[in-house]
Amino acid sequence: MACLLGGLLVTLAVVRPLTSEAIVNGAFDGSWWLLFATIGLVLTLRLPANPIGWLYAAAGLVWSLYIPFDPWVDQLQRTGRPLPVAAPYLVLIGENFWAIGLTLAVTLPLLLLPDGRLRSPRWRPVVVAAVAATAMQIVGNCLDPAPTTQTLEPLAEPFALHGWPGTVATVVSWAGFGIMFACVPAAALCVVLRFRDSQGVERQQLRWVAFGAAASVVGPLLALGLAALGVLPSEDAFSWPLLLSVPLAIAVAVLRYRLWDLDRLISRTVAYALVTALLALPYLVILPVASRLLEGSGSLAVAAVTLAVAAAFQPLRRRVQSLVNRRFNRRRYDAARTVDAFATRLRDQVDLDALHTELLGVVHQTMQPTRATLWLRPRADA
Question: What contacts 24+ positions apart, CB below 8 Å, involve 150-156?
Fold first, then answer.
């Protein structure tokens, strides 16, 4: 929060001309790291012994450290003024700390899911490789003779080496970069192996992580379509699902918050997506044709056709929603059908013993408790 507030104050003080677009873009960019830090805060408050929360909190911090200096350096370069002596050193934070955040927020949490412990000691080399590769990438990049790439104009790095030492630094930097990114699929493989051997609550936790991974792939594709229509508030908004889907899913899995609602969430997501598509279909395909045929008939006729087409698609919408519920939400769907059927029979049931037996049977079938009893309060005049 301090880094984000510092970035806002520096932007207001030095950026000229100050436009609302610059503030909005900065706010959306900073919201990514704030959400990572918030996830870390919630996890550490609820489960302080689980290191995943601390990893996310640290990732949000290291990604935010350069925010107060970024608008200052950009404005100096934009106006052509000379940079102070401290500026190149501060630029190194933005140039290198992204690697620390990647290891803290992606590789290590995947290896420690969901209880904060490694699957087995055999995965320790992956942790060591990820940390060592991050250090190699940062040290090599600081000594690399190549100029900076995260500034508006390239700057010479203050610790750059030249000649064969610079060549060695470049090799070390790229080697660390390759090893660091190779550890990400290795960590993902660890999650897959955990899921294969898991059961019960742990399996449900890992299902949430798998759902987050799927959303991180599908979400950007949908966001790119919305960006083409000019709906998204920022050009980089398509990357929000990519960055945040997995951390949010991991937070739900670690906290065990509504773990068993995943099927219902998927069911509702698919159902609403299909229903929205079905409702949009008449307007995109049928209505333009109908409007052309009814041209000259007035807006009332077009409105009547619109209502008629929407009404005609309602049975199809209900059928699609029912089909999705049966496919993705089978347990809840079967339980709902059982309860509805029991409610229908209850209207005609007069035998108390039969009602007692049938009610306990419905409870066992839908809720599956270890034990169920029915207590009837005696009548006051008995």
Answer: 150/91, 150/94, 150/95, 151/73, 151/74, 151/77, 151/91, 152/74, 152/77, 152/78, 153/77, 155/83, 155/87, 155/88, 155/91, 156/88
> Can you give 187-229 as a three-state secondary structure string?
HHHHHHHHHHHCCHHHHHHHHHHHHHHHHHHHHHHHHHHHHHC
| pLDDT band, very low/low/confident/very high, at 205 (cuts 50, 70, 90) | confident
pLDDT at res. 131: 94
Closest CA to 7 of 88, 95, 85, 90: 90
For residue 6, which of 92, 72, 105 has the smallest C-alpha distance? Answer: 72
Closest C-alpha among 207, 208, 245, 239 to residue 221: 239
Q: Which residue has the tokens 């940062």?
A: 138
| Total-model pTM | 0.69
Residue with tokens 């929060």: 1
Helix, strand counts (H, E) of the chain:
16, 0
